[in-house]
């Protein structure tokens, strides 16, 4: 990438990585066409890479290109003898090599590769870095890419070849790390997905490992032609290496994860500490008491199921589901208050300027579903535009609530409170109804009437005629209001969109109302001589429907309908608000449309009997209104829910998944995605996974392994997948 040297040093200092431990950084951003064999160490200026004249200073670990074309320094060949100078990327064509300084003598080190590969070598390893002359050298190691894009670490000793592969989800752009401890011959491979903040590792140990200090980027220096590639089943790397970083010393895994984010930032400010003083709300005293201290496995819930064979014989079986209970005991109790004091603390947290286009290159763009369907299915997905959304694709586990219920669930995230969407076996589940009138609502437009009263009004459009609601003037019953209010002051609601006429409700007790038009008008009457205005809106309104669960707070919820015995069928998305709009269809809809007038119906996900409706085909918007176009069958009552989303910063798309296929290629890099198949929510890890579009062995249908004449196994797929047996015809990779 294009290097900002000052940013690199600032970032390393901010994350407690010693800048003096950096030996070499090849960013390929300082390209000099007249210096075709020289790869400058970007830790230094171009001039500082030289000892004198045009002679490189090997103590500063510059690189020397030893390939025929010197692509890493002078760019890819376009044809006709012309060259493309690709600043910020080192292009390797399979025959390019870069030697690191005069050698790497340290016994403990860490390296990073930020790369993107091109094509696949059928049955051959593509070598990224090697300190072994070839695959049979008894000193040194190599790290490379296999046909399935997995990273492989290899070396050869007197006992034979040893190898460790790191299975993971590889994208078009990837960051990998490799480190070695000086205390033992232990290597650690790391795969860093900065797109999803996912990091995986594998360790590798060889007591007989022998060091080699001659390091080469791009391949084995001794495997430099087609015949040797056939012999050693290894080729040079083909693709782009944007960054190569070499550190002296073994980094810890947390340090690797912090440093890997450097490849996507454009600015960084470290956290600032200093003297902080003022009035602070915090803990003023500490005592001990009795209360909940955690959860504990209390036993198992047994349910009996019956299985009937084709002969009509019945066999009973028992399902055993773990149940958790609240664990009580002595705990520390904190009393909070406001005090004035001074302390040394964080005055400002660290901040990042993220190059999101760069970061998104590390994302995956292909969905692999667990099962294929006999018919075509519609796939819809949401993908975050920028930041990782840690509020989606959450799981839940069953536990014993303090109420004694064995059916309670708790979301597997401490960041979730009581606002979330729940899906069970793909279907949306409705929460207990809550107030849908905004708490920021106020009465306005007070006018004087002939009866000596002022009347203020508030119009609410997010209602539908025929739907039942609970009208509850809860603040009218508060003792503070009863003691101070004028006897003639009152609140009510007009069911026909008017404060006049017979269709009004004016009482302090909660009651069920049904709007006669798609609008309600709340009103407040107070004497003109002594107006008594409310500081908060005194009325609550909630829809009437049969709910599936009740939030208990802190991410826990209690089902009142069947959620199944296991939490693995549950998906949870956290939201910022828990208000849900509802409409009960007690009639059918054929070719006609139903229009919903109100901002609360817009920019929401819509579910009919738990199944998500698709924008455009099932509904649309016009003139600021929501229009339902989907036909609703006449049989039975149908529940339509308008549901808040977990984010507003996302892209959405949909398309068809053909019959008997499991792979759906998206048009976007998938980040914190939400996926629906025919309107049913899919759970990551259970019902689908992700991979790189067009990557090796993407299962677009059923796949198998076949043995070729050369006695090596490759994958072959159905016609059109491109995954067929193919032999190398040169030392350069043949794309599959």
Topology:
Blueprint: H1 5-14, E1 22-26, E2 38-39, E3 50-52, E4 55-56, E5 63-65, H2 71-74, E6 76-79, E7 82-84, E8 90-93, E9 98-100, E10 109-117, E11 125-130, E12 142-145, E13 151-157, E14 160-166, E15 174-180, E16 186-193, E17 198-205, E18 216-217, H3 226-232, E19 234-236, E20 238-248, H4 253-260, E21 265-269, E22 272-308, E23 314-348, E24 351-354, H5 356-360, E25 364-369, E26 377-384, E27 396-399, E28 408-411, E29 420-424, E30 427-429, E31 444-448, E32 453-460, E33 469-472, H6 479-484, E34 490-494, E35 504-505, E36 511-513, E37 520-527, E38 540-543, E39 549-553, E40 556-559, E41 570-574, E42 581-585, E43 594-597, E44 605-608, E45 611-612, E46 619-622, E47 625-628, E48 638-643, E49 650-657, E50 663-670, E51 674-677, E52 680-682, E53 688-691, E54 704-707, E55 713-716
Parallel strand pairs: 11-19
Antiparallel strand pairs: 1-20, 2-5, 3-4, 5-9, 6-7, 8-20, 9-18, 10-15, 10-20, 11-12, 11-18, 12-13, 13-14, 15-16, 16-17, 21-24, 22-23, 25-50, 25-53, 26-49, 26-51, 27-28, 28-40, 29-30, 29-41, 31-32, 32-37, 33-36, 33-38, 34-35, 34-37, 39-40, 42-48, 43-47, 44-45, 44-48, 46-47, 51-52, 54-55
